[in-house]
Design goal:
Elements lengths: L1 H25 L4 E9 L4 E10 L3 E4 L12 E4 L5 E9 L4 E5 L4 E6 L2 E10 L3 E14 L2 E14 L21 H10 L7 H24 L7 H12 L3 H28 L4 H9 L1 H18 L9 H11 L3 H32 L5 H22 L12 H28 L7 H19 L16 H17 L67 H11 L3 E6 L4 H11 L2 H10 L1 E6 L12 E2 L6 E2 L2 H13 L6 E5 L5 E6 L5 H18 L2
Parallel strand pairs: 11-12
Antiparallel strand pairs: 1-2, 2-8, 3-7, 3-9, 4-9, 5-8, 6-7, 9-10, 11-15, 13-14, 15-16
Helix pairs in contact: 3-9, 3-10, 4-5, 4-10, 5-9, 5-10, 7-9, 7-11, 8-9, 9-10, 11-12, 12-13, 16-18
C-alpha cells in the first residue's frame, strides 16, 4: 500500500511540475503569501506568515503522514543577524479528511492559513528571507509551487502580543494581556483564587492584630497606658476635649505605623525586590543579629534604648497640648515602644514584603489598631484604669517570655540563608532539637525553675502561667517525633524541608538528601532533569526544574503540564506540600496524569549566557534561575506570589484557573481533575 501511495504521490508531483507553466499561463498563484515580524520582547520576534487561499483551493499542512502529498515547507535562507528558536508552528486550525487517492487522513487549510516562527534578534536590524514550497490543490488536481517572501525585524519596533505559543524558550514571552485574559476566561467556570488571596489578607490582618495586643504587654508599652491617659485628662479643660485628643492620639499611632507598611509597598518593586528582601544573606543576617540582640536584651543582658534626644524632642512638642500635641505624643509613644516591639514589627514587615501589594499596609494597620485601641478606650473611660494590674515583676516575666519566642524565631533567618544558597548546613533534626531546648527552658522558666537578672521571687505559680508552661512542654513533646522523620504538618512552614532529614525511623534507613538526584522511574521522564543535583520535588515525585525541558516532555508524553512556582524560603509552599500534596489522592494524580515542573523563583544559580532573558516588563537581563522564573511568572501570569500552581496543555493554554495557597485538599483534587478533563476535551 505504501508503494502504491508513493507512486501516486510521485505522479501528482510530476503532474504538478508539467502543469506548472500551464497553470501560471491560465491563472494567478492561488495562494498569496505575506510575512511580518512582530516584536514580543526586548530581543525576540515572532515571524507571522499568512497565506490567503483562493476559493475552491486548499493548502496542505506542514505535517502530513508518510506516503501522502508534499507538505508545506518553510526554509529560512542563511539567517544573518538573528537565530531561529524552535520550529515553525501552525496557528490556524486545519481541517482533516480522509483522502481516497492516498487512502490517508490528510490535514489542509482553506480560505486562509497562518504560521509562526520565533526568532531572536542579534543585531539592530535583520532581513528575513523565507522560501515556501507547497502544493495547492483544486478538486483532484494539484500544482507544486515555490514562493519567496521576506520581512525585516527591527529592534526599534514596538512590543506587541504574540499570535500564539511557540515551541522553545520563546513560550515564556507571550503577551501579558493575552495570558491574563486566558486566566480570567478559564474553562467552564473559575475557582476561588481571588477569594483565597482575600482570605489570606484577612488572616494576616488578624495575626497582626494579635501581635499588636501582645506588644501592649511589654514593659515599654504597658506602663505608658495610665501615664498617657493621665496626660490627656490633666491637659484638657473638659472631658470632651480629652476624648477628642485621645482619638487623635490613637489615629496618629495607626497612621505612623501604617505609613511604615505603605513605604514597604511603595518600594516593593516587584517580585525581584521581595525575593531579595526575604532571601538575601545580608538582610537575613542583619535580622538574625537584631533578633539575637533583642532576645539578649529581654533576658536582661543589657537594655536597648533609642536615642533620648529623639524622644525628648517629640515629647517637648507634645507638652504644647491640643491636636498637634496629641500627634507628637503618639510619635513619642511609637519611638519609645520600638525598643520592645521592634522584633514584632520587623517580623510582620518581612512577612508582608513577601506578599507585596496591600499586605504590608494591612499588616501594619492591624498591628497599630490593636496597639492604639486601649489608649483611646481608657481615655474615654478613665475609671477603667483602676482595673488594670499594677506594673511589677510579672512584666519582666512577659519580657523574658518574649525573649524565648524571639530567640526561637531568629533561627528562621539562618534557615533562610541555608536554604536560599543551598548550603545544606542545617539539618531538620538539628533545627528541631534547638527548638526543643528553647521551649523546654521556657517551660522551666514559667514554673520558676530558672530565674533571670530582673525577676522577682516567684512565691507561687498562677493558673495562667501554669497553662503556658503546659503548652510549652506539650509543644516540646509534639516536636519529639520530628527528630525521627515525622512530618509535623502544622508547623512544616517553619522547619527545614523533609529532604534535609538524615534519618527516617519509619523506613529505618537514610533518606535521600536535598542534594541527591531522586531515583526516577525510567518511563516517567523523557530525559535527565536539569538542576536535579540541587533542586528537588517533595514526596519522591519525579519532574523537571526547567520549563522548556518539561514542555518538551509533556508534548512527547501527550500529558498536561503542572507548573509549581515555588521558593526555597517559601513557608506556605512547604505547608502546601506537607498538608495537601501529601494526600495519597493528590500524589496519585500528580504521578499519573501530569508532567511536573518546579520553577524556583529565588534560586541564585547563574545560567549560561545563552539562556539569559531580557524582561519585557522592566527591560533588565535575568541571569539566574530564580530571576528568570520569577519574571516568567510575573510576565506570563501577572502574579508574583508563591505557591502558585498552573495547569497547561501542550499548546501552553491554561486548562483551569490557577491556584495559590489553599489547604482545601478536595478543592486541589478537583483542580487537578478539571485540568485532565479539559486536556482530554481539547485532544479528542
Amino acid at each position: 500500500m505504501k508503494r502504491i501511495a508513493l507512486l501516486k504521490s510521485l505522479g501528482l508531483f510530476l503532474f504538478g511540475l508539467l502543469a506548472l507553466g500551464h497553470a501560471h499561463a491560465q491563472m494567478d498563484d492561488p495562494v498569496q503569501w505575506s510575512a511580518t515580524a512582530k516584536r514580543i520582547d526586548a530581543s525576540k520576534f515572532e515571524v507571522v506568515i499568512s497565506a490567503s487561499i483562493d476559493e475552491g483551493w486548499h493548502l496542505y499542512s506542514t505535517k502530513l503522514p508518510e506516503g501522502g502529498p508534499l507538505p508545506t515547507n518553510f526554509s529560512f535562507e542563511k539567517p544573518v543577524g538573528y537565530k531561529l528558536i524552535g520550529n515553525i508552528k501552525e496557528v490556524s486550525k486545519s481541517k482533516t479528511e480522509h483522502d481516497e487517492i492516498f487512502n490517508l487522513d490528510l490535514s489542509y487549510f482553506e480560505g486562509e492559513a497562518v504560521f509562526s516562527q520565533l526568532i531572536e534578534l542579534e543585531s539592530e536590524e535583520a532581513p528575513i528571507n523565507i522560501t515556501v514550497e507547497y502544493q495547492a490543490c483544486y478538486a483532484d488536481k494539484c500544482i507544486y509551487l515555490e514562493k519567496s517572501i521576506s520581512t525585516v525585524a527591527k529592534s526599534s519596533a514596538p512590543i506587541e502580543g504574540a499570535v500564539t505559543g511557540i515551541e522553545g524558550q520563546g513560550s515564556e514571552q507571550k503577551a501579558v494581556a493575552d495570558s491574563v485574559q486566558t486566566m480570567k476566561t478559564g474553562v467552564e467556570g473559575t475557582t476561588d483564587t481571588g477569594k483565597t488571596e482575600e482570605q489570606s489578607l484577612w488572616w494576616f490582618f488578624l495575626v497582626s492584630f494579635a501581635a499588636g495586643l501582645a506588644g501592649l504587654l511589654t514593659p515599654c508599652v504597658f506602663p505608658m497606658i495610665p501615664m498617657t491617659v493621665s496626660f490627656f485628662m490633666g491637659k484638657q479643660q473638659n472631658r470632651a476635649n480629652a476624648i477628642l485628643n485621645a482619638f487623635v492620639f490613637g489615629i496618629s499611632i495607626v497612621a505612623i505605623y501604617t505609613s511604615l507598611g505603605l513605604i514597604v509597598s511603595l518600594f516593593s518593586l516587584g517580585s525581584d525586590f521581595a525575593n531579595t528582601l526575604t532571601s538575601h544573606w545580608i538582610t537575613n543576617s542583619i535580622f538574625f543579629i537584631l533578633f539575637i540582640a533583642f532576645a539578649a536584651s529581654f533576658f536582661g543582658l543589657f537594655e536597648i534604648v533609642l536615642p533620648g534626644s529623639l524622644a525628648n524632642k517629640t515629647d517637648s512638642k507634645a507638652d504644647r497640648g491640643g491636636l498637634i500635641g496629641s500627634f507628637f505624643l503618639a510619635l513619642t509613644t511609637v519611638i519609645v515602644s520600638l525598643s520592645c516591639v521592634g522584633p514584632i514589627v520587623g517580623a510582620l514587615l518581612v512577612e508582608a514584603a513577601s506578599g507585596l501589594g496591600a499586605k504590608p499596609i494591612v499588616g501594619m494597620f492591624g498591628f497599630s489598631l490593636a496597639f492604639s485601641i486601649p489608649f483611646t478606650l481608657f481615655a474615654i473611660f478613665p475609671s477603667w484604669l483602676n482595673s488594670l494590674p499594677r506594673s511589677g515583676g510579672w512584666m519582666n516575666s512577659v519580657k523574658v517570655f518574649l525573649g524565648f519566642i524571639v530567640l526561637a524565631f531568629s533561627l528562621k533567618f539562618l534557615l533562610t540563608i541555608d536554604q536560599g544558597y543551598q548550603l545544606n548546613l542545617i539539618s531538620r533534626e538539628g533545627y528541631i532539637a534547638v527548638w526543643m531546648a528553647i521551649f523546654t527552658l521556657l517551660g522551666l522558666y514559667l514554673l520558676g525553675k530558672i530565674k533571670f537578672k530582673f525577676d522577682s521571687d516567684l512565691q507561687h505559680v498562677g493558673i495562667f502561667r501554669l497553662f503556658l508552661a503546659i503548652a510549652s512542654f506539650a509543644f516540646v513533646f509534639y516536636l519529639l517525633p520530628g527528630l525521627f522523620g515525622a512530618p509535623l504538618k502544622t508547623i512544616s512552614g517553619l522547619l527545614p524541608p523533609q529532604s534535609s532529614q538524615s534519618f527516617d525511623l519509619k523506613s529505618n534507613q537514610v533518606i535521600i538528601s536535598q542534594t541527591t538526584t531522586p531515583i526516577a522511574d525510567e518511563n516517567s521522564l523523557c530525559e535527565e532533569p536539569r538542576f536535579a543535583d540541587f533542586l528537588h520535588l517533595p514526596h519522591g515525585l519525579n519532574g523537571y526544574f526547567d520549563y522548556d525541558q518539561a514542555l518538551r516532555c509533556a508534548r512527547e508524553k501527550k500529558k498536561p503540564l503542572f507548573i509549581d512556582f515555588v521558593g526555597h524560603t517559601c513557608a506556605n509552599c512547604k505547608v502546601m506540600e506537607a498538608q495537601v500534596w501529601s494526600d495519597p489522592r493528590v500524589l496519585e494524580r500528580l504521578r499519573r496524569d501530569y508532567i511536573i515542573v518546579a520553577l524556583y523563583v529565588d534560586d541564585r544559580t547563574e545560567l549560561p549566557e545563552s539562556e539569559w532573558v531580557t524582561s519585557a516588563r522592566d527591560g533588565k537581563v535575568k541571569k539566574t534561575i530564580g530571576k528568570k522564573n520569577s519574571d516568567f511568572q510575573a510576565t506570563r501570569f501577572n502574579v508574583n506570589g508563591q505557591p502558585y500552581y498552573v495547569l497547561l496543555d501542550n499548546q501552553e493554554k491554561v486548562l483551569a484557573e490557577p491556584r495559590g495557597f489553599d489547604l482545601d485538599v478536595e478543592a486541589f483534587i478537583q483542580f487537578l481533575d478539571k485540568g485532565v478533563e479539559e486536556f482530554k476535551k481539547r485532544n479528542q
